[in-house]
Amino acid sequence: MHTRRMFGTKMFAALAAxxxxxxxxxxxxxxxxxxxxxxxxxxxxxxxxxxGSPIPGQKWKVHDLQRPLPPKVTPGLPILSPASPSDAIVLxxxxxxxxxxxxxxxxGAAPTAPTNKVENGYVEMGxxxxxxxxxxxxxxxLEWTTLGEDPTRHGQGRGNSGVTMMxxxxxxxxxxxxxxxxxxxxxxxxxxxxxxxxxxxxxxxxWNSYDVFFEAPQxxxxxxxxxxxxxxxxxxxxxxxxxxxxxxxxxxxxxxxTPHAPEESLSLQGHTGKVRFRNIWIRxxxxxxxxxxxxxxxxxxxxxxx
Length: 306
Ligand code: MG
Prior knowledge:
Radius of gyration: 21 Å
Bound molecules: magnesium ion
Number of strands: 15
CATH topology of the domain at 80-287: Jelly Rolls
Distance between the termini: 65 Å
CATH superfamily of the domain at 80-287: Exo-inulinase, domain 1
Largest sheet: 8 strands, antiparallel
Strand content: 25-35%
Oligomer: single chain
CATH architecture of the domain at 80-287: Sandwich
Number of helices: 2
Order of helices and strands: HHEEEEEEEEEEEEEEE
């Protein structure tokens, strides 16, 4: 853990010295929602992804087949399904997608309403959906399950979705109980950067929970002055502990930052295979000392009348 945090510090120093846009080998892939994005790779194309660039601060390459798979851990059951606290924004309560938009439309057209199926307390992924409200530092809870009824789908093609913080930083959702793929692309991975420390994914058809603690990156013009940090509790188990991201997660090439607003929409990725989400709520992390009330000690006792 300490080592990983040291990597984060080193990366921060390195990132701070580099203009964010200068890191871009190519324009960033816009975090498109719905059908407005470019062509989507087929599962077969995904499986053929070669190993990518060396990952700064690590000894691995992107999608490195030499990188070990995270050990499987059986989580305690039932998985966590907490009701939303009073200061949370409920993004999906099982009934409707009123907090979400679907496709963004082209040429500045207004976002479209989501077309994803909602039933029995869950939303089933079709197209990508994005929150209408935007968020920066936050605590996010959600639950997901994959359905693997299609035997022709495997690896990245099987139950692939994602929880994409700020529409850029993907925490992978994938059928992960008995569905091998490269380690930095498995369920709970910070896509293309870090596999989860352990793999507590439940079998297909059973629910999993993510509790995400996210710190938004900060930019000064084109420079990254603070990277994004992600902590993930996966089925009640810590699998990432304040990991510094290298930028917008990407299949290939390596993740890069491009400056963006302090708050952006959270998106759920529509990708391949059937994935369902339920019980989604989020809290803004506002830091310490945001209260408006104060403690008033009892007044000193009235002196005696003598
Ligand atoms: Mg994904």
